[in-house]
Design goal:
single chain, alpha/beta, 5-stranded mixed beta sheet, 5 strands, about 10% strand, elongated
Length: about 210
């Protein structure tokens, strides 16, 4: 009986020692993980800020003639920025396995897949067929094809029959102008607010501009 008690006591002490060792070893690792996670989150936020400003500059400095000489990936970046400022959550798909979709737009529980076609000629019905093939893969509620050019009659017919939205050169120009107008207004408002804040603080300090 006494022997069992001693064994239990030894086991209890052993468990405590192990717990202390684990605490000593794991606590720094946990703290390092939390610190690293915070640093990573901050870095992602800074990258997002940089991308946001880059996207804004890209939109405000590009017109349709600029778009006409873009590479395909640049056109995708342009559309990404445009839809971001239109209020969408935008994701660029992986190039190797995009299944016919270049962008994913999400808003109000809806998912829209977009195929971007920066072309020097009319866009044919193949693009409509490709985006239709991607609808089920992404669980999309809508499918769009966007181009800086125009669509062939066959593409328009197939799109109409299958509920695919086609955004051609003219509509793209209108959409871009609306977004740029919004950004210009926002920038102007920010400047006015900033100037008023400076003026107010200078008055409080007894200074004048």
């Amino acid at each position: 009986m006494e022997k069992n008690k001693n064994n239990q006591k030894k086991i209890s002490i052993f468990r405590r020692v192990i717990s202390i060792i684990l605490l000593i070893v794991l606590l720094p690792l946990v703290l390092f993980y939390l610190f690293f996670k915070k640093i990573l989150k901050h870095a992602r936020y800074k990258l997002w800020q940089k991308e946001e400003m880059t996207g804004k500059k890209l939109l405000l400095s590009s017109d349709i003639t600029t778009i006409d000489i873009m590479e395909g990936y640049e056109f995708e970046a342009y559309l990404k920025a445009m839809f971001f400022y239109a209020g969408f959550d935008v994701t660029v798909t992986q190039k190797s396995r995009d299944y016919g979709a270049d962008l994913l737009l999400r808003k109000n529980n809806e998912t829209i897949i977009v195929q971007a076609k920066r072309y020097n000629k009319q866009v044919g019905m193949k693009s409509v067929q490709e985006i239709l093939g991607a609808v089920n893969h992404y669980g999309a509620t809508e499918a769009w094809v966007i181009t800086n050019n125009y669509f062939s009659p066959q593409a328009e017919t197939l799109a109409k029959e299958n509920g695919v939205r086609l955004i051609d050169r003219d509509e793209l120009v209108l959409m871009s102008k609306e977004i740029c107008k919004k950004l210009s207004i926002d920038n102007e408002s920010s400047s006015i607010i900033g100037a008023k804040s400076i003026l107010h603080s200078n008055k409080l300090d007894g200074r004048s501009l």
